[in-house]
Design brief:
Layout (H helix, E strand, L loop, with lengths): L14 E7 L2 H6 L5 E2 L3 E2 L4 E8 L9 E9 L2 E6 L6 H8 L3 E2 L2 E2 L13 E8 L8 E4 L2 E4 L4 E2 L3 E17 L11 E7 L3 E4 L2 H6 L5
Length: 205
């Protein structure tokens, strides 16, 4: 009897987060925000509201239609590094707005938009190799310059902005690490489970 080919689900520990500012001002203020390493990311979820409609003569049940969709906030956690203030600067940047107008200018055409798009790439299981190193966030085999690990799942969150920023506490009796957590609100996301879908969504594959 022929054994069916085995397929395994994706692991959840090898991923890369890319933050893309929509405005030039934020990009200039935080030039290193594009690629930051994160230790954890909370899951994605969407909730669709229910609209119930009762029609005269239809006495047994109500019509049920879809209403507004709500996307839950997403949290990103990373360690605290000296000079690594990109997330805090993003949090500070949104306070430069007054009544939705940045620094007295009009609209977002001035490049002062505080929103960012966030792209998350999930890789397949890493290959064990003595020559395995990281270069610009990609797994590279120095001997053959071949990338180790392929992007298997892509996520893109649209128009994200900081909803909460948390800095870990201090304790003289502890030996832990300081971490910072940024919770972002967003206006929806798309998922790409293959390269064709990623191309259609204009994601980086």
């Amino acid at each position: 009897m022929t054994i069916a080919q085995r397929t395994d689900p994706l692991r959840n520990f090898k991923f890369q987060v890319t933050i893309e500012p929509n405005g030039n001002a934020l990009k200039t203020m935080t030039p290193n925000i594009a690629k930051l390493g994160f230790s954890t990311m909370s899951g994605l979820s969407v909730t669709n509201d229910l609209l119930a409609y009762r029609e005269g003569g239809m006495n047994t049940h109500t019509h049920k239609m879809v209403g507004l969709s709500d996307f839950s906030a997403v949290s990103f956690v990373r360690g605290v590094f000296a000079e690594g203030n990109e997330l805090w600067k993003w949090q500070q940047f949104i306070h430069s707005w007054e009544s939705g107008v940045p620094n007295g200018s009009k609209g977002t055409d001035s490049g002062q938009d505080y929103r960012c798009n966030i792209i998350v790439a999930v890789y397949d299981h890493p290959t064990t190799s003595n020559a395995y190193t990281y270069s610009n966030g990609e797994g590279i085999n120095d001997s053959s310059t071949k990338q180790i690990g392929n992007k298997r799942l892509m996520m893109k969150l649209f128009n994200c902005w900081p909803g909460a920023f948390n800095l870990g506490g201090l304790s003289a009796g502890d030996s832990g690490l300081m971490v910072q957590e940024l919770t972002v609100h967003h206006e929806g996301f798309v998922l790409a489970f293959n390269s064709t879908e990623a191309s259609n969504y204009a994601l980086i594959w």
